[in-house]
Design goal:
This protein has 241 residues and is of the alpha+beta class. Helices cover 50% and strands 24% of the residues. The chain has six helices and six strands; from the N terminus they run H-H-H-E-E-H-H-H-E-E-E-E. The longest helix is centred in the middle third of the chain and has 42 residues, at 132-173. The N and C termini lie far apart (64 Å).
Length: 241
């Protein structure tokens, strides 16, 4: 019988290799797979995939791309209450104020429409002389126009605040087979954690450098219309690019 000359130590190593490999694979933090998939999709400009995994974008044409990375730390989870009601109330107040303002502006315009039309025609003529009546109406009408921009801006700001606040919630909660996120009936919290990584980042000019990035991951938990809801982890911030 020919006996193997393989050293005992090597035999043991061969036998233990599958166990060691499994332990190494299992020791990787769960964030590793998610970030790997996200960075790969971002590099390939797979917007559908990145939209399902994040409320932020990573465009290789303008921001660069993460070619490889190593997780250096995972911070503790922190819970932040979501106060959608305050945002909705502010938006409603801005909408009502803008509607009341437009009604008052329309009433003034209707009462002085002839003079206002004359003023609008004369505005294109720098040498035009205004009548006494036109001189009385013009500063008032100018203020109405200036205030219009203010009210429209305020309304737009409140709507943008709702969009910014609800974007992560919708991305976390909107999943196949579940009801869509409804900001009016949802009550709950956002759970955040920071994942620090060392990344090989290729900039839009194809130059690669190592950067320390912090990826914020978030998920939403709470109730919607009294029904418990628990969202998936998504990427909500990328700092350090």
């Amino acid at each position: 019988m020919i006996q193997s000359r393989m050293p005992i130590a090597l035999k043991v190593a061969v036998l233990l290799f599958p166990v060691v490999a499994l332990e190494i694979a299992c020791s990787r933090p769960p964030e590793q797979q998610m970030l790997t998939q996200f960075f790969r999709a971002a590099r390939n400009r797979d917007n559908n995939t990145t939209a399902m995994m994040a409320s932020v974008s990573l465009d290789p044409r303008t921001q660069g791309s993460v070619e490889d990375f190593t997780i250096t730390s995972v911070g503790p989870e922190q819970t932040v209450p979501l106060n959608f009601k305050a945002l909705l109330d502010a938006a409603e107040q801005a909408r009502v104020a803008e509607a009341e303002f437009q009604a008052q502006k329309r009433a003034y315009s209707n009462a002085n429409i002839t003079v206002i039309e004359q003023i609008l025609k004369l505005e294109n003529d720098p040498t035009a002389k205004l009548t006494r009546e036109q001189q009385a109406v013009k500063p008032i009408w100018d203020k109405w126009r200036a205030d219009t921009a203010t009210f429209v801006k305020n309304l737009g700001t409140t709507k943008a605040a709702i969009t910014a606040a609800t974007g992560p919630a919708a991305a976390s909660l909107d999943q196949p087979g579940q009801d869509k996120f409804d900001v009016k009936t949802f009550d709950g919290n956002m759970v955040n954690k920071d994942v620090a990584i060392k990344a090989q980042v290729k900039d839009p000019l194809d130059q690669t450098s190592e950067k320390d990035l912090v990826i914020t991951m978030s998920r939403i938990v709470g109730t919607q219309g009294g029904t418990p809801r628990e969202g998936k982890w998504i990427i909500t911030k990328i700092a350090g690019l």
